[in-house]
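Listing S7. Sequence submitted for prediction.
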Amino acid sequence: MPAVFEYHHTVRADEIDAQGHANNVCYVAWMQEAALAHSAAQGWPPAAYQRLGLGWVVRAHTIEYHQSALAGDEIVVVTWVADFKRVTSRRRYRICRRADGGLLASAETKWAFIDYTTGQPCRIPAEIASAFEVVGDSPP
């Protein structure tokens, strides 16, 4: 099970904005897709959270843009869990262009674990926390 996960994506024409590069909202979508794919790879796909009646919601995204992504660019979203606390977790991301390794963006999401019925924060179950290796702020 990978502590550091890679999600691959090719920038589509419909993701390009009026300035000719990937719209900044797309980066958030790629981060979400990478986080879901990593969770599924660790044995926690969306359906498993639904069965449990518990799961993650986003509290905040932070993104620093470094270079533009263009239509047809093959990108890699590298993601890892930076920390787990009682009811929260931070996930980090590096979004790179595959062809030259250029860093397009660095980002972080702060997640809260909630009870789907009440919408209230709850303790992250041990079986979920143990499915992920905490890497810290930078991948090995």
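Caption to Listing S7: primary sequence and predicted structure tokens for the chain studied. The helical segments are 24-41, 46-52, 126-129. The chain has one domain: 4-129.
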